[in-house]
């Protein structure tokens, strides 16, 4: 690589950016003013609301009854200090009320008066209804009306404080002279230094903030870097110069990094200035001081993350033909990056876990650990290496986009787009299933919970069936081939019998493994047990929960989806993508791991046997066994399975897949004419 | 006006828009899917975080717990997942060393929190000064501290009850009085309150988003693609072409807003409802998210008004751009101008007064909030209609003025709206 | 060293195109350009001229066959190839926000022209192409004719021995086109090897020392104008072109 060439290219990029006042104003200067201003104004609104709530006069009424005379004394005492939310022992307690209450006559129709805001809270004293025999004050109010809700809050808190005081007086009258706050006084001792505590707060969000700023800043150059050059026709000029592709990509990356870095620094400095001017407040307990050592370490740590981000932006830019397209594609990149960068927010995530393998997230967690002072070097190094590796891979991918001929030559659509039909389906299949997923999500979460689970299954299955039929009809797909409607090798059935129970055991293991990272709440398990209610007859259970899903989910996922993805993915990718997609269709977070595994196994079953039938049988058997194990004691999975359960299950699965392997001569012949027995070894 | 031509042009614009990925995504897909998806992620994340925090086993050491406060251990058991190691109070000379040891173990994460009770002479028997040691830089330790604090405060209040009982204060005399709150607002009303706070805000943003791409695409985009000349040689008056384009932009904004509002209601029902029920378990007042039927016409009306207003304003700005990119930067300030007051005025204590109803966009937000809560304020509705209509007419007038100028129409004008206005306002003699 | 500056053997390129499926844009093309000549590729739109030239300039990778520039293989030594090459076409645009001087400096540097002589070379180009007054103005402000001059200056600023002009006169008015043709002849007279593609017969007739007629991805004939006249017994290049192209249609 030639340094002189790269420098010349970087200077060229930056010079052009500097000469584009519009971009500078809208992408750099405007956010600098806008974000703090937004923040400032929002906090101003909140403050003003608080002031308005505190400065107004609230109208209250007391129901006339004998109990009210006792209560009025307490109420008066409470009202004298309403709005002062400090604890009674606090010496700074204000002398008078900070919120004014005005008593009005009890209206004839309390709800109507509340609704018309002629009254904010109504108090009724009742004697002897409480368990203790003490009088009971009932506040009637409207939580959806701002003033009424506030009035109730002020009054209730004031009255409760009054009760504490009255109690203390009564206790003192019996000769007990210790103040309640002197009972078991607690001194909180913090072993972490202030920097460490603040480091935890900062560490949770720092990575997300930096990633956001880098992406926002980097995208200014990145859209222009390849997509914009393509649009203007300068990319071809550049490609015919003696600069090598590596030099071009390096230069583009450097330009993106330089601008991203500069805008991030500007933004952070800007926020600090606003904070210094007290125009916006830092969150409580957050000290914006990072020790020098940690700061240097963080800078080193974020370096590969920065390269990863700029490379991904460049990759997107390189894959787009126009500026507009690049901009559109940046959104998903930002979403994914932000989701990953937000992982340090999750409580208790440690670098010493699988997280170390997830680029950016690992650096985020590492940054948190550095800021709180608990970290170990080997894992820091591993996290760094993983993200750096990912960055290198992406950089290489963006290098390849420079020689992607589709983007240079005029032919931007393939024949399939025009011809339609089966050839188009592989490109559209993901879109179809995404829509299907969204549909299912909306339907299941809105209405799904309220109806009979049998009906739910029937509707879900019809959705799958209808979608499959629609796709087959729309793209004129060959039904037999799409759905793999072929006779499997006879031994496959034996494979199903072995594989399904073993698969259930492994799925159970996967769920347990996942629950280490993602604990399943108790009530969820109860809700699930209820959903597969015991009051449904056994034959219905089998039909609705085993056989129907076995048929329709297989047609949709192992039939249409698998067919659509087959031509675009390599076998391992295919198995994972098609399997995990199936898991995601179970919407519920806690069901995804187990069902994804089932999906993976079923995809392998179809690919191995060349037929969908064993997968259907397997799926039905799996569901039946899962239901059975929940209802019948004898076939329940052990509560504390040991490692050999899983080893055995994995071996059984391997045997099952081996049995399913299609005999190529046999499979192509019509049913029944193939040789009997398992496939000869080889 | 030649409505047949306008209709023809309008439909062709709409058809090509539905084939344009960026318009489709910004105008339809994002408004429709963003909130359900976002809330699904939020819902899953909150479930995940709470379940995870609950699952932390807190390793806690308690030294010198007085016999009077054994109840504390029961409290901790109720908290669940607290592993308590109980030790005797350190001997007189070793207290400091013991404490140092605890701090060391906290730092090394061998322990999540510790309580040290030291008997004091003050107060009744069993009273002790309590030290609560924890490590604020660890999530597990913070959880443990929370659990200990809750248990401790419950134990203190129990103890006070026991003391009162010993001193002859019982039942009603010790209770003094009870307080009970009766919220007359139904779940539906609570839901409307919450929706009223959130829907109008995103509604405006989505309408602006829905207008953004079509407004730029149908003006600057045409120039960039060199289709502007083709369009302007059509056998119809320029005003018809512009009218068709404007209707198309306004339609896209309206559609985006309406879709978004629908998607919001749906996702509130399916995610926010269950989530609030889960988080506010003490409250009891369940939220129900249902839009009152009579708010629907208002919602539709406001969608149309906003679509028409924002669309017109954006088109005027974008008319000066020669490329899509330029158009985008010219329109951005307006986008902010619309969103800013909406964000800033998102305050439930703000009353919707007639003077506020005279400010375009802001009035729509406030009107919508009231409508979602089931209130129809006719006077304010009228003023809102008038003020927005006036703003729309103003924008259209300006647009006709702008397009009458040859240079702008052909795209050879260099500059933006403000430069244009400055030149228009300059006295004619100034040029000479 | 051979006198053939550019050597192309069996060069082929196939890719997908709209509606047509797999398209063989260039099929086994052979030719060579000798030092100091203008070699013309003459063909109709879509005949494969641009694809061929893009392969020689390493923008596209050949599907099969080889091409060498000054003995450097386009696949194995793309950087060396591009260093010895100036590529000019209607689709090689300039950065609108740079000035002419900045543009020339940038391309001299990126094309690895010796650092110490870059400055002088840029000034020399500015003078030679008459850019003096405009050298400091941004390219977006220049007229089409001026832009085109900057573009040519950009192509030759690193003093490459081989120049490729891909339909250079497309979109130019008569005077600008003549100007450009004059410029190309001057470059040839300085000893540059020029590979030139066009679909305009008069241009090829006037400029080219040797002409290759390309149709449907194949070279139909390759010779000097006189040679082509002799082979087809036609006088005008237009007739010669039609002769070769229609001859193919009958043979299939």
Tags for this model:
heterotrimer; A: about 675 residues; mainly alpha; D-Maltodextrin-Binding Protein, domain 2; B: about 425 residues; alpha/beta; 4-stranded mixed beta sheet; disordered C terminus
Distance between the termini of chain B: 38 Å
Would you list the SSEs of chain C in sequence order as H and E? Answer: EEEHEEHEHHHEHEHEEHH
User: Span from first to last CA of chain C?
Assistant: 40 Å
* Relative strand content of chain B: 5-15%
Tally of domains of chain B = 2
Helix percent band of chain B = 55-70%
From the helix content, strand content and strand pairing of chain C, which structural class follows?
Answer: alpha/beta
Task: Give the overall shape of chain B.
Answer: elongated
Q: What low-confidence regions of chain B span 5 or more consecutive residues with pLDDT below 50?
A: 428-432
Q: Quote the CATH topology of the largest domain in chain C.
A: Rossmann fold
- The CATH homologous superfamily of the largest domain in chain C corresponds to P-loop containing nucleotide triphosphate hydrolases
Q: So how many helices of chain B?
A: 15
* Biggest sheet descriptor of chain B: 4 strands, mixed
Proportion of residues in extended strands of chain C = 25-35%
Helicity of chain C, in percent?
Answer: 25-40%
Going across the biggest sheet of chain B, name each strand in turn: 2-1-3-4
Summarize the main sheet of chain C: 6 strands, mixed
Number of strands of chain B: 5
Top CATH class of the largest domain in chain C: Alpha Beta
């Amino acid at each position: 690589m030639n340094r002189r060439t790269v420098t010349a290219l970087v200077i060229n990029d930056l010079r052009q950016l500097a000469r584009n006042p519009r971009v500078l104003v809208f992408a750099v200067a405007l956010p600098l003013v806008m974000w703090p201003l937004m923040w400032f104004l929002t906090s101003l609104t909140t403050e003003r609301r608080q002031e308005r709530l505190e400065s107004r006069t609230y109208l209250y009424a007391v129901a006339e009854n004998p109990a009210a005379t006792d209560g009025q004394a307490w109420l008066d005492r409470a009202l004298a200090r309403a709005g002062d939310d400090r604890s009674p022992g606090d010496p700074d307690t204000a002398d008078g009320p900070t919120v004014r209450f005005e008593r009005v006559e009890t209206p004839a129709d309390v709800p109507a008066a509340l609704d018309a805001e002629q009254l904010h809270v109504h108090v009724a004293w009742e004697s002897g209804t409480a368990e203790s025999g003490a009088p009971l004050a009932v506040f009637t109010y409207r939580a959806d009306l701002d003033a009424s809700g506030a009035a109730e809050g002020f009054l209730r808190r004031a009255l409760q404080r009054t009760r504490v005081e009255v109690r203390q007086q009564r206790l003192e009258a019996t000769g007990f002279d210790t103040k309640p706050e002197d009972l078991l006084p607690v001194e909180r001792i913090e072993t972490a230094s202030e920097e460490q505590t603040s480091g935890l707060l900062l560490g949770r969000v720092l990575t997300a903030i930096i990633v956001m700023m880098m992406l926002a800043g980097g995208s200014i150059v990145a859209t222009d870097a390849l997509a914009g050059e393509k649009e203007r026709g300068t990319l071809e000029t550049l490609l015919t110069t003696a600069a090598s592709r590596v030099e071009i990509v390096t230069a583009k990356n450097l330009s993106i990094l330089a601008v991203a870095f500069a805008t991030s620094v500007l933004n952070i400095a800007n926020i600090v200035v606003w904070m210094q001017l007290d125009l916006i407040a830092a969150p409580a307990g957050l000290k914006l001081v990072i020790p020098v050592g940690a700061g240097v370490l963080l800078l080193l740590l974020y370096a590969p993350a920065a390269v990863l981000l700029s490379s991904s932006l460049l990759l997107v830019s390189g894959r787009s033909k126009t500026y507009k397209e690049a901009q559109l594609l940046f959104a998903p990149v930002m979403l994914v990056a932000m989701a990953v960068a937000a992982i340090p927010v999750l409580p208790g995530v440690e670098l010493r876990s699988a997280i170390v393998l997830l680029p950016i997230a690992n650096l985020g967690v590492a940054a948190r650990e550095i800021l709180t002072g608990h970290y170990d070097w080997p894992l820091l190094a591993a996290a760094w290496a993983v993200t750096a590796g990912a960055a290198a891979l992406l950089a290489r991918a963006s290098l390849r986009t420079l020689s992607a001929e589709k983007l240079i030559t005029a032919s931007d659509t393939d024949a399939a787009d025009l011809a339609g039909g089966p050839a188009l389906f592989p490109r559209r299949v993901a879109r179809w299933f995404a829509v299907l997923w969204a549909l299912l999500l909306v339907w299941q979460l809105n209405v799904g919970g309220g109806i009979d689970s049998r009906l739910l299954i029937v509707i879900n299955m019809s959705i799958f069936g209808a979608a499959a039929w629609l796709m087959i009809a729309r793209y004129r797909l060959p039904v037999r081939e799409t759905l793999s409607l072929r006779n499997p090798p006879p031994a496959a059935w034996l494979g199903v019998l072995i594989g399904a129970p073993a698969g259930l055991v492994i799925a159970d293991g996967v769920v347990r493994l996942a629950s280490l990272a993602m604990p399943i709440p108790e009530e969820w398990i109860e809700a699930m047990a209820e959903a597969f209610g015991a009051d449904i007859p056994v034959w219905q259970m089998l039909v609705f929960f085993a056989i129907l899903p076995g048929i329709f989910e297989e047609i949709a996922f192992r039939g249409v989806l698998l067919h659509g993805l087959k031509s675009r993915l390599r076998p391992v990718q295919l198995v994972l993508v098609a399997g995990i997609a199936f898991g995601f269709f179970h919407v519920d977070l806690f069901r995804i791991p187990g069902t994804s595994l089932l999906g993976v196994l079923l995809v392998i079953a179809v690919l191995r046997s060349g037929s969908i039938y064993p997968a259907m049988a397997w799926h039905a058997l799996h569901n039946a066994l899962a239901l059975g194990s929940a209802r019948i004691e004898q076939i329940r999975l052990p509560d504390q399975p040991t490692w050999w359960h899983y080893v055995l299950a994995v071996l059984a699965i391997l045997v099952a897949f081996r049995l399913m392997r299609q005999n190529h001569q046999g499979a192509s012949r019509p049913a029944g004419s193939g040789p009997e027995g398992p496939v000869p070894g080889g | 006006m030649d409505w047949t031509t306008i209709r023809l042009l309008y439909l062709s614009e709409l058809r090509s828009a539905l084939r344009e990925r960026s318009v489709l995504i910004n105008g339809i897909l994002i408004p429709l899917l963003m909130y359900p998806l976002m809330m699904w992620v939020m819902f899953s994340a909150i479930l995940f975080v709470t379940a995870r925090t609950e699952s932390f086993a807190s390793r806690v050491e308690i030294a010198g717990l007085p016999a009077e406060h054994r109840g504390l251990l029961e409290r901790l058991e109720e908290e669940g997942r607290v592993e308590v190691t109980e030790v005797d109070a350190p001997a007189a000379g070793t207290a400091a060393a013991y404490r140092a040891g605890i701090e060391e173990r906290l730092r090394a994460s061998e322990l999540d929190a510790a309580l040290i009770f030291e008997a004091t002479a003050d107060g009744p028997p069993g009273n002790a000064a309590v030290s609560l040691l924890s490590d604020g830089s660890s999530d597990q330790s913070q959880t443990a501290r929370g659990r200990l604090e809750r248990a401790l405060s419950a134990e203190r209040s129990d103890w006070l009850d026991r003391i009162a009982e010993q001193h002859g204060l019982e039942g009603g005399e010790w209770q003094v009085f009870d307080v009970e709150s009766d919220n007359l607002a139904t779940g539906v009303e609570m839901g409307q309150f919450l929706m009223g706070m959130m829907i109008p805000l995103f509604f405006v943003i989505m309408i602006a988003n829905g207008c953004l791409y079509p407004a730029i695409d149908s003006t600057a985009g045409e120039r960039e693609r060199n289709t502007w000349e083709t369009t302007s040689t059509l056998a119809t008056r320029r005003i018809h072409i512009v009218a068709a384009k404007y209707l198309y932009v306004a339609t896209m904004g309206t559609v985006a807003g309406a879709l978004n509002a629908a998607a919001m209601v749906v996702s509130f029902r399916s995610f926010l409802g269950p989530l609030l029920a889960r988080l506010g378990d003490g409250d009891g007042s369940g939220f129900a998210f249902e839009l009152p039927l009579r708010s629907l016409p208002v919602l539709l009306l406001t969608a149309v008004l906003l679509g028409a207003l924002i669309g017109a304003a954006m088109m005027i700005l974008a008319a000066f751009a020669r490329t899509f990119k330029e158009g985008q930067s010219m329109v951005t300030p307006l986008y902010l101008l619309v969103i800013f007051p909406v964000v800033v005025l998102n305050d439930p204590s703000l009353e919707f007064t007639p003077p506020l109803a005279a400010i375009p966009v802001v009035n729509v937000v406030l009107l919508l909030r009231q409508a979602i809560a089931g209130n129809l304020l006719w006077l304010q509705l009228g003023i809102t209609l008038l003020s927005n209509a006036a703003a729309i007419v103003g924008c259209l007038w300006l647009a006709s003025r702008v397009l009458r100028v040859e240079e702008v129409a052909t795209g050879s004008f260099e500059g933006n709206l403000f430069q244009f206005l400055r030149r228009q306002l300059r006295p004619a003699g100034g040029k000479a | 060293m051979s006198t053939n500056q550019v050597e192309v053997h069996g060069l082929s390129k196939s890719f997908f195109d709209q509606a047509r499926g797999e398209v063989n844009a260039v099929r086994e093309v052979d030719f060579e350009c000798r030092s100091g000549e203008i070699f013309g590729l003459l063909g109709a739109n879509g005949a494969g001229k641009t694809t061929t030239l893009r392969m020689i300039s390493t923008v596209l990778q050949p599907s099969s066959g080889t091409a060498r520039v000054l003995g450097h293989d386009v696949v194995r030594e793309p950087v060396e190839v591009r260093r010895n090459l100036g590529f000019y076409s209607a689709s090689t645009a300039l950065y609108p926000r740079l000035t002419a001087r900045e543009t020339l400096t940038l391309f001299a540097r990126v094309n690895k022209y010796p650092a110490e002589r870059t400055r002088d070379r840029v000034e020399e180009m500015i003078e030679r192409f008459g850019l003096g007054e405009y050298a400091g103005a941004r390219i977006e402000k220049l007229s089409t004719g001026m832009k085109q001059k900057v573009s040519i200056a950009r192509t030759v600023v690193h003093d490459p021995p081989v120049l490729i002009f891909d339909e250079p006169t497309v979109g130019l008015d008569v005077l600008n086109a003549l100007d450009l043709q004059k410029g190309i002849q001057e470059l040839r007279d300085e000893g540059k090897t020029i590979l030139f593609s066009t679909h305009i017969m008069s241009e090829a007739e006037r400029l080219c020392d040797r002409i290759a007629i390309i149709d449907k991805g194949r070279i139909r004939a390759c010779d000097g104008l006189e040679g082509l006249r002799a082979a087809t017994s036609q006088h005008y290049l237009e007739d010669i072109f039609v002769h070769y192209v229609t001859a193919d249609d009958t043979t299939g």
